[in-house]
Prior knowledge:
The complex is a heterodimer. By secondary structure, chain A is mostly beta strands. Chain A is built from no helices and ten strands. A six-stranded mixed beta sheet of chain A has the order 1-2-4-5-6-9, with no helix packed on it. A four-stranded antiparallel beta sheet of chain A has the order 3-10-7-8, with no helix packed on it. Chain A starts with a strand and ends with a strand. Chains A and B meet through β5, β8 and β9 of A and loops of B.
Amino acid sequence: MRVTRTKPTRNCLRIDSTRxxxxxxxxxxxxxxxxxxxxxxVSGSCLRGQALSGEAPQLDLIELFGTNQVTIHFNTAAxxxxxxxxxxxxxxxxSGVDGSANLWTNVFVAPNLPxxxxxxxxxxxxxxxxxxxLMVTD
Amino acid sequence: xxxxxxxxxxxxxxxxFALFGFCAVQACELCAVxxxxxxxxxxxxxxxxxxxxQFTHFGTEQFDGRKVDRSNPDRLDxxxxxxxxxxxxxxxxxxxxxxxxxxxxxxxxxxxxSVNEPPTAYREQGSDVDLGDVAVLGRWxxxxxxxxxxxxxxxxxxxxxxxxxxxxxxxxxxxxxxxYGALLPPGTPHDPxxxxxxxVHPHELSPGSGSFDGIFGVTFNTRWQRWVFNGQFQYALRSxxxxxxxxxxxxxxxxxxxxxxxxxERYTLSLQAVAVYETMARDRLLQTVSDRTGFTAWYxxxxxxxxxxxxxxxxxxxxxxxxxxxxxxxxxxDYRVHGGxxxxx
Lengths: 138, 345
């Protein structure tokens, strides 16, 4: 994942993903997950993601909310199930497929609907670092 | 829930057929037809009691006018019964009080948003019986030409619907809209019902609106010998109600030709083909119109009309949808069954 720091607007960092919907970055790619991994722990920052190819699902925005929370924004396509997951440890964020510990936990499961939709998910900042990913299944 | 629906339908059928043995004797065939209008309480002074019911099965889900299929869809069955007490001040003027009782059986799945935690998915299933919004209506017969061979009657209707029904579901829906809006960056354009993923919205389950609404209508009834043509135009002008929720204005146009099949000394029976055009504008909440509401529909179906003597009238019919286009994600009717009784004292 390539991170490009641009002049922040509303304290946002722009992150460009080089992955496609079925590819992946690093260990995550072997699962065929369409994901975007961002760090949401930088204080006073919001993070805006942008996929460079095709119709890859993505986390559009992670923004501070209130005093101790963030909101995660993402769009969903029709007839797909989306699972927003989080992990608090970068080094221990294994995929689970190769035997590494899979400590990703489900934050929210967007149901399979016959139309596209947009979600805004609230999560509490309990750790200095938390990673999010979006898993898509039929 | 299914058992209750069957009981409602059977009671209506029994009431329709039980009065054949109590009919008065009429002098001639066209007299019977002439008196059919009389039994519908159009001409004479006095008290009138009526009951009208409509059962609607919302079994098809649409997204922006297109049918969609999914496992475990939301659904809604609705039975609305209007109990009406009227008084004809004269052959030209009348007043009536309409009290609706609403039975709804539903199943819906939705998300509940919070500012403290991720949204939670839930499923709701059950039935409610509630008092709806009471209406007071006036009638002015502006044209009435009645002869043995033919009739022409035009009525103007006007009234107000009062906020007597419960509105808790409206309040909950607006609260959810506020919560969802609070999660978005300030100034983000969004639909005020964008938080919901259900095709049966809470405002469709609300017995009341919390608003004073105007009701305006025109009825047009003509007859030539045994042939009839009836039409009706009705417009509901909505105002802001509970928690800033405002239902869309509603236009209803119905009409069609018919013919008396039977007309004898005891009763008359006519069969009518009724076409219905109905359109409801989009709802508004928190001063924003929702593009997930509103619909336009066309129906067609038969209606039987019965009169017995000069006091009793009844009707029953079915509306089959020809075309329905609903905005956003909504459950739409598969069919409607309706009936009514009227007794003039």
